[in-house]
């Protein structure tokens, strides 16, 4: 069933954003601290048993200089620098294996896949630990790790990794640094939003953002209208820590996709499923309607969190062909 507002109301849904006064200062400080560490990106050739694709095992310095893993895939022996799509992964998934990521190199582009620190134990394996586990109480999962302190919060580390991943992708000679897109679904969609807003601040310009069924948008409403995980982790935490709920949402405001959307000017394609109980449609439209750049949205009325799946991927390929050739 449809689980949120009617479509005509969703198209007009523009809620007030709970934005901290020092939002920009917080992220300027965070990115500045991160760039004090050498990016130290390494690309080690990797035998993935793929005849038509070159694969590199990537390591780069993310938040705090922590080593973050990834994959770089290109068509075999590319001629000249290629457009590159930097891909981010959904909640509790990891980078998996190179043959999981053949769509973009099959279409003639490079693909840079960022592993997600401390995740990869839920549905696809990962290889990157989170060496700064956070302090304070937390419930199972990552969503409440360090949530009582914005500086200690898990997503501060993760979103910094996102920006550094864009920098690392741009550093490889097979990649055209002037033709970079970011992409992801669910948590990965929230990460793509963060990249679109934050990466240009350090000169890592992005050409396009593919933002599918994004997580971490209009977070307070999400917690109020769905019990589905991962937002259910926040509900459970606030139910136990009754006297700290407002502290939780004060931290989350620094990581809410609606606030990143209001600062992102990169052209973007969003997608939403109107039967999505994981990232309810109104939370997606809140980010979409606040998005500052040129934008469009794919609406899947009879789909949930899976969104458009293969048809959405086909849309992405068509857009990439148009913007990258």
What are the key terms here?
alpha/beta, Rossmann fold, 9 strands, 325 residues
Structure at a glance:
Helix content is 33%, strand content 19%. With 325 residues, it is an alpha/beta fold.
Radius of gyration (CA) equals 19 Å
What would you call the quaternary organization?
single chain
* Highest-level CATH class: Alpha Beta
Beta strands, count: 9
How many alpha or pi helices?
Answer: 11
Global morphology: globular
Please give the alpha-carbon distance between the first and last residues. 40 Å
If strands are numbered along the chain, what order do they take across the biggest sheet? Answer: 1-2-3-5-4-6-7-8-9
* Uncertain segments: none
Number of domains: 1
Mean pLDDT across every amino acid position: 97
Portion of residues within helices: 25-40%
Walkthrough of the structure:
Residues 2-318 form the Acetyl xylan esterase domain. Residues 120-142 are annotated as: Disordered. It comes from Microtetraspora glauca. The protein is globular. The chain has helices at residues 7-11, 23-35, 103-106, 154-171, 187-198, 219-225, 231-240, 245-252, 257-261, 281-290, 309-324; strands at 42-45, 53-61, 67-75, 82-88, 110-114, 175-185, 208-212, 268-273, 295-300. β8, α10 and β9 form a beta-alpha-beta unit. The protein has eleven helices and nine strands. With 325 residues, the chain is α/β, with parallel strands linked by helices. The protein has a single domain, classed as Rossmann fold. It has a nine-stranded mixed beta sheet with strand order 1-2-3-5-4-6-7-8-9, with helices on both faces. α4 crosses α5 and α6 packs across α7 (231-240). The mean pLDDT is 97. The longest helix has 18 residues, at 154-171. Helices cover 33% and strands 19% of the residues.
């Amino acid at each position: 069933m449809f689980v949120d507002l009617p479509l005509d109301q969703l198209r007009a849904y523009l809620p007030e954003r709970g934005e901290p006064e020092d939002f920009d200062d917080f992220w300027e400080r965070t990115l500045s601290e991160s760039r004090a560490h050498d990016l130290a990106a390494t690309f080690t050739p990797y035998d993935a048993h793929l005849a038509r694709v070159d694969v590199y095992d990537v390591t780069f310095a993310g938040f705090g200089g922590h080593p973050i893993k990834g994959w770089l895939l290109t068509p075999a022996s590319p001629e000249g620098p290629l457009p590159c799509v930097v891909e981010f992964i959904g909640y509790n998934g990891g980078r998996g294996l190179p043959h999981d990521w053949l769509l973009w190199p099959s279409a003639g582009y490079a693909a840079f896949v960022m592993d997600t620190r401390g995740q990869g134990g839920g549905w696809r394996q990962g290889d990157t630990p989170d060496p700064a586990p956070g302090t304070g109480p937390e419930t199972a999962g990552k969503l409440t790790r360090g949530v009582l302190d914005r500086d200690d919060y898990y997503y501060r580390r993760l979103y910094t990794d996102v920006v550094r991943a864009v920098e690392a992708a741009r550093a490889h000679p097979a990649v055209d640094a002037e033709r970079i897109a970011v992409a992801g679904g669910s948590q990965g969609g929230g990460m793509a939003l963060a990249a679109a807003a934050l990466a240009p601040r350090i000169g890592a310009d992005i050409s396009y953002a593919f933002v599918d069924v994004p997580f971490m948008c209009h977070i307070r409403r999400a917690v109020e209208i769905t019990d589905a995980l991962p937002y259910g982790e926040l509900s459970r935490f606030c139910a136990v820590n009754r006297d700290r709920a407002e502290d939780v949402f004060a931290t989350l405001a620094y990581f809410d996709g609606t606030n990143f959307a209001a600062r992102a000017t990169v052209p973007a394609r969003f997608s939403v499923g109107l039967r999505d109980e994981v990232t309810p449609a109104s939370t997606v439209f809140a980010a979409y309607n606040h998005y500052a750049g040129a934008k469009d949205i794919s609406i899947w009325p009879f789909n949930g969190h899976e969104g458009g799946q293969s048809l959405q991927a086909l849309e992405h390929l068509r857009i990439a062909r148009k913007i990258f050739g």
